[in-house]
Amino acid sequence: MIARLTGVLAEKHPTLLLVDVGGVGFGVQVPLSTSSKLTETGRPVTLHTYTHVREDVLQLFGFLTLRERALFELLISVSGIGPKVALGILSGIAPEALQRAVGGKDLAALQLIPGVGRKTAERIVVELSEKIQILPGVEETAATARAAVPADAVSALISLGYSRPAASSAVKDVLSEKEDLAVEEIVRRALARVTK
Fold it and tell me: What is the pLDDT of residue 114?
């Protein structure tokens, strides 16, 4: 089983990535949430993968976080949900929102996901409502998520064409004034500083 893949992002399509690992191109199917966070080809990428094997097919599904992969594995354990449907579900709802909807038995929220009807939503809730609250080893603490915010903001500024030192300095200045800001707000404030 291929559990993780690290290489260079060679091609990017909405739900398919081509990752070059030592000259071998791996086609990896991904949810839109993963694809949208990978902005440029030619850059290193690490994906947590799930290898799906049937008698006639071998497929790789990739995720940026262990939480997404764990949710994918739970979803495909539900009767009637295969890898394509699970990928569609993860493309249609954020992992945290999915956990809340299933844990809270919120059928209406689940039915808002494209491709999920009432029967599928009911099966997901019945089969996963207890399991989905306990994802061992993949829960992201608030501190972990908070620690990633400055790095994400710096990366966003670099992708907009600013140098790493200028981006780091601007983010540091913004966070010295107020710490509890979302990445988008940090970037907005930092842009105001670097463009002066």
Answer: 86
Q: What are the CA-CA distances from residue 138 to residues 13, 29, 37, 89 (Å)?
A: 27, 21, 19, 19
Residues 78 and 102 in one domain: yes
Count the domains in the chain: 3
Reduced to 3 states (helix: H, G, I; strand: E, B; else coil), residue 47 is strand
- Residues paired with 21 in a beta bridge: 24
Question: Both 82 and 118 in a single domain?
Answer: yes
* Predicted model pTM: 0.66
Instruction: Yes or no: say if 10 and 44 are a contact pair by the CB < 8 Å rule.
Output: no
First and final CA of the chain: distance in angstroms? 51
Mean pLDDT of 79-85: 91
What pLDDT, in 10s, does the model give residues 27-49? 999 999 888 888 788 989 999 99
Q: Which residues are CB-neighbours of 98 under 8 A, at least 6 positions away? A: 71, 89, 90, 132
Q: Write out the residue range of the structural domain in which residue 49 sits.
A: 4-63
- Contact present, 62 and 5 (Cβ < 8 Å): yes
* Cβ count within 10 A of residue 3: 10
